[in-house]
Protein: Helix-turn-helix protein
Amino acid sequence: MTVGELPIGRRVAQWRVQRRMSQQVFADRLGKSKSWVDKVERGVRALDRLSVIEEIAEVLRIDPVVLLGRDTPPAAATTSGLVDGVDGVRAALARHDVFRTGVEAPPLPPVDEVARLVGHGWLAYQHAHYPQLVRMLPDLLDTARRCHTPRAERSAELLVQAYRLTSSVLVKLGDAGLAWLAADRAMAVAAEDPVVAATAAVPLGQALRALGRGRLAMTAALAAANRIAPAVPREVPPGESVVCGALLLQAALAAVDCGDDRSVAELLDRAADLADRVGDGHDHHQTSFGPTVIELARVLTAAELGDTADALRRHASVTRRDSWRRLPAEYRAAHLIDTARAYLRLGDLPGAGRLLVEADRTAPAEVRCRPVARTVLAEVYRSGPEAAGVARLAAAVGLTR
Structure:
């Protein structure tokens, strides 16, 4: 096996040794735990976030391409360039009406019209229509900002939702830095309303995790959750319980990134208590939060912490539920991609390929537009023998050119 064919974890270990760093020293410089480093080097934890690979490469003082390997298809590491229109979103986030002079301001849009546009945006997101949503976002952001005045009821909440949508789709497309900016804008707009601010903290946690800042993500999510945590849970409206639970879920996922196994279990259990009170089938604050989502999180965290067998057992169980089929297509396809990574770690290429093909049938853009999904697909495709449908899917996304 040549150096370029080595698994990425092995390459990390080789360069760490070459730089004469112990696992503990390396972990300290990354802000991770020694356990996290050990799992990465043994291949128990996948390295499929470009931001984390870049951070590791910086500590090792090498080019990220060295870690990715010379045989890695370039498309596997592509970011938001996969979808046209991200530059338009970037420009919309950079615009500030306060600096416009000599231009007559257009009339304020009716709040109901803004609410309709925001609702249409969330529908596009939940169906993983990312190219369509990216094209919508510049006008949506401009319209929601113009609507945001002290006299317009709900205008702050609608602007926060527009920023949340922007941050969420940018995380999907691999532009975590721009996603962080959008989430930060949402937090600034919602500062005076604890519940609306808490909804904004959900994409903030996602963006920070995508940037490889697990500790910051965990801190931000817990601070927002504790701010609205119910003193008497059964007396709190379901909407607030849902947001608190979604934040605890984000904190648990961030704890995984930090290698903090104990906190993962504690946070998931706290979130599960809230989910059981709310139940499935609701979509308060566009979170899809409920017992089924908690079980999907247990699949992901078990896989990330190295208990792949438990992850796959849980996956098989939860996907048989009726509530699984009622989740948004985006959520189901994202879970299938995460589980494909678990199959890949076990060396079960047909299993990983089968889930990727199923994810593509469920929500094609989730596979074809997300760098993380394309990385998994590239690994399955090049490792062979090919699972049914994988070659066709790889060709469709341009990995065979």
